[in-house]
Amino acid sequence: MGKIKALEISTDQTTLTLKPVEPTDTLQLKPFWTQVARETTHTMRHPHEVFQNPAEMFETVRKVYQDPKTLWLGLFASETLVGFGSFHFPFKNHPWYQHLGTFELALLKSFWGMGLGRVLLETIESYAHKRGILKLEARVRADNFRALTLYEKLGYQIEGIRRSVAHIDCQYKDEVLIGKFL
Questions:
Q1: Which fold is adopted by the domain 7-134?
Q2: What average pLDDT does this structure show over 158-169?
Q3: In a 3-state reduction of DSSP, which class is residue 111?
Q4: Is 146:171 a contact under the CB 8 Å cutoff?
Q5: Which of 25, 29, 124, 137 has the fewest Cβ atoms nearer than 10 Å?
Q6: Where along the chain do its domains lie?
């Protein structure tokens, strides 16, 4: 069972391509994550993040691309990465957790509100389900209302709160653990 096939997605503004991130896309990752970090504090990325050098990043992407238990999805406008979704097994070799997967999503701010987060997550859910995953989880900043609204619409429930786990702009922020049985 391979990775997903590329999909064309049309919005009012443009046509996008959703496909697995391939080693040839490696140079798109740093500018994407740098811009995401400038636009929002709702991800684990920050403006002063140090990235792997291009050769190391290429090797990371190659390994992810070849790993059937991991998926990095890219949403591309022409050749530019504008959205990212990932899926992985958090405990690949532990027998008690083989039913569990985790995900993360990020979009450039100019692509918010177009239904693209839903497309990314539904693609991840389908991929995970085909691999025998029964439950998906994610950590979400508690003040990321847009994301939490989307996840709730798709059937995710808040399962726990991690209090004051991030210190951003002189304020402590909570995270919520969300989950859904597929």
A1: Aminopeptidase (3.40.630)
A2: 96
A3: helix
A4: no
A5: 137
A6: 7-134
The whole-angstrom separation of Cα 22 and Cα 28 is 10
CA distances from 157 to 3, 35, 124, 132, 153 (A): 28, 29, 17, 20, 10
- Output the CA–CA distances (angstroms, integers) from residue 128 to 38, 103, 156, 158, in the order listed: 30, 10, 15, 20
CA 150 to chain centre: 14
Please identify which residue in the block is written with the tokens 């097994």: 89
pLDDT at 2 over 80: no
Q: Which residues contact 71 (CB under 8 A, 6 or more apart)?
A: 3, 4, 20, 64, 85, 86, 87, 88, 124, 127
Q: How many CB atoms lie within 10 A of CB 151?
A: 25
- Tell me whether residue 36 is exposed, middle or buried, using C-beta atoms within 10 angstroms of its C-beta: 0 to 12, 13 to 18, 19 or more: buried
- What count of other Cβ atoms lies within 10 Å of the Cβ of residue 137? 16
Rounded average pLDDT over 142-159: 97
For 12, phi then psi, to 5°, come to: -60, -30
Whose CA is closest to 104, among 79, 71, 146? 71
Kind and range of the H or E run holding 165: strand 157-168
